[in-house]
Design brief:
mainly beta, globular
Length: 480
Amino acid sequence: MPILRPLALALACLCFTPAHAAVELIAIGSLNGTTDLSGLSGSLENGLAGNSLGGIGSGLAWAGGNTFLALPDRGPNATAYSGGTAVDNTTSYISRFQTVTMSLTPNASGSALPFSLTPTLTGTTLLSSPTPLTYGSTAGLPSAIPPGNTANQYFFTGRSDGFGAGVSTNPANARLDPEAIRVANDGKSVFVADEYGPYVRQFDRSTGQLMRTFSLPANFAVSNQNAVGALEISGNTVGRVTNKGMEGLAITPDGKTLVGFMQSPLAQDGGDGGRYNRIITIDIASGATKQFAFDNQVNSKNYNSSEILAINDHQFLVLERDGKGLGDGSSALLKQLRLVDISGGTDVSSVTGAANLASLALKPSLFLDLRAMLNAMGITDDQIPAKLEGLAFGQDIIVGGQVRHTLWLANDNDFVAAVAGPNRFFAFSFTDADLPGFVAQSLTEVPLPPSLALLGVGAIGLAALRRRAKTLSAVTALPH
């Protein structure tokens, strides 16, 4: 059964009535601070602290209630350092995810937004393998082996030279560039998509230890690996484009299928700047895969794709964006959520090349123009984060007696808050009418806190609370 949203939030929302039934921006919040809760000490190759907090909007996953998992990518590599060009200025930053609570507080009537949002960092989980990994050894650079490694805990890092012999999907490679995260329906593990392999890996949520690496088809891998991205791109004509690998990951509401996609077309399909990206579905139980092509062209321009989110078992939201805005020193031109439906699509696992994919590619339709919505709230194009990347549905809320779903968006600030702004979160609300077919993920139910149990509510599921929404909206005498 789905996790129950806090009743206190539901009751607190009764006072605000939406102006119209449409997708609405309801809150914006920032997570400030410079260090996470990893407890790591010491410095990275570029001099930054090993527990630096940043970039956590590369991936965003709902974990039930008001809890989310926020994912930084391979770490701070926007800061150049001596000898760093040999590894694209990447560092031995240990891969991790952050646990964040999102507290919504109703604003006074007449406020620009109906809620205030306060994100709070509550935990940091480091990602490791129980078996040895292959770390880099580049002349002139310190050892890439994390000093905290033990006989049964080998940490993944962002340093680009962490690979061994063979193709890039070798599961023993230590390099990991996490770009998307989803929570398993039992709440006990997480799935992480990576650009280096590309990989999809499953980790224990509480310990961060690797449980499984899914085998991806050979056409996604590159055979000539290199620590310098430009050299790796020029050395391969097949496989993912360096730094444009598995950028997005979804999990279907029933928890049975992972759905990932490339940030750009594969090298053999046109490469970076090409038109036809690949979606890959992975049956979690068997590991079986299928591939679908989709058209990433908007207004005659091809865009890289940042995230994919499951509406149900066949419809998905795709985040398409340019790289312009705050952090790039320019003005945003396109940030959109587009809807793609794979039902009836053709499996293109054996199809190669843009010309052959063209007639088989799925055509997404516009769901939400994020740039226009942020502009309407007074956020100018030069202040819209350039790298909007994390996307998740969240718990429902009750607004004016109406059950509304929530949609959450986060940015990757590349660990340079002074340039790209803080880690920001944007919360939206919508109804079934706005997104027909929407199904909430069936996360495992958890008990209510004792304070709510005292109200006599009991551990009811989300579906039951929806049925009671009309009753709850009338109970205005209860404390809120």
